Amino acid sequence: MQKIVVVGSLNMDVVIETPHMPERGETISGRKIDLVSGGKGANQAYALGKLGGDVTMIGAVGKDAAGEAILESLRSVNVNVEGIRQMEDGTTGQAFIAVDDDGDNSIIIIAGTNGMVTKELIDEKADIIRESDIVIMQFEIPLEVVEYVKEMAVKEGKTVIVDPAPAVTGLPEHFWNGIDYIKPNETELAILTGMKMNTREELVKGARVMIGKGVKNVIVTLGKEGCLMVTEDTEEFFCPYKVKALDTTAAGDSFTAAFALALSQGKTYGEAVSLGQKVSSIAVTRKGAQTSIPTLEEVKTIWDE
Ligand code: RIB
Predict the structure, then answer these.
(1) pLDDT (tens digit per residue) in 174-211
(2) Cα–Cα distances in Å, from 19 out to 16, 61, 104, 205?
(3) Which atom of ligand 1 lies nearest, measured to the CA of 36?
(4) What is the set of active-site residues?
(5) Total-model pTM
(6) What number is the average pLDDT over the span 226-242?
(7) Quick one: average pLDDT of 119-124?
């Protein structure tokens, strides 16, 4: 099995259950509030660990209770946390998440120590990247650091997976060059390309714009509609696994993790997409970020994987 490193964010999620999202200027009563370990990077690392992958995480937390809790959560599923720096003078990242009765969410993040991840920290942890086969990143740490890691990983011949979330505009064109896989959802793809996409044909066109920028493969997750995989010369739609969503938090993170796990085990990208769909479709039936991730055994009992 290949080694995987996740470079990215760690947050303490403050999750509010609410019947519906408040309108602008409206005050409503929520039902309940929970603290759950999260952060897109940490969720991916956690999911990889829980699914049985060989995973190390690089990032930063504060020397506070939230940081300790997130480290503990990662250790509990055998994630190697030696790449995570505990910052003396910063507060662990936080995410304020409202989840409504349809399972949809709205998230506001406060970067905290995620914003303090620097190229110098990456240099200090560069051996972890060199010793890994697959490098996964997202966009919740400074983008110049994401770009720095990407350049390093491409130069070292690693398989590079970027989950471009939260999506941003204005990245330099050369950023995309050499990335093996990106996994935007349709909203993120629209932001990255500046295109409106309502039909499958338009989604394929959007994905091809990213391939034109140098990305080798684009997986567009479409929620209840399944997902789309576009390579230089192929395109394939994958039907969804129908479930009743309770909380979609970390659906994308668990997809990315399961996809990477399958690649690390030498599976084809079609098999990897399928595992991503299975794991994320279980995650959305459960509450919270890391609390929603299944084991591979749980996946197997449902789908005989
Ligand atoms: O993708 C879900 C994650 O986004 C949450 O866990 C939250 O921390 C935000 O980073």
Answers:
(1) 999 999 999 999 999 999 999 999 999 999 999 999 99
(2) 10, 32, 11, 37
(3) 6
(4) 253
(5) 0.96
(6) 95
(7) 98
- Mutation probe of ligand 1 site: the residue of 12, 37, 40, 292 with most atoms within 8 A of C-beta: 40
Other CB atoms closer than 10 Å to residue 150's CB: what's the count?
22
Q: Measured between alpha carbons, how far is 153 from 172 in angstroms, rounded to an integer?
A: 18
**Which residue has its alpha carbon closest to ligand 1 atom 6?**
38
**By C-alpha distance, which of 289, 288, 285, 280 is closest to 246?**
285
The conformation of residue 102, written as its DSSP 8-state character, comes to T
Pure H helices in the chain:
40-50, 65-76, 119-124, 126-130, 143-155, 186-193, 200-212, 251-264, 269-283, 296-303
Task: Say how many Å lie between the CA of residue 97 and the centre of ligand 1.
Answer: 8
Mutation probe of ligand 1 site: the residue of 11, 73, 248, 255 with most atoms within 8 A of C-beta: 11
What the block records as the tokens of 282 is 């279980």
List ligand 1's pocket residues with C-beta within 6 A.
Answer: 9, 11, 13, 38-40, 43, 95, 107, 109, 140, 249-250, 252-253, 289
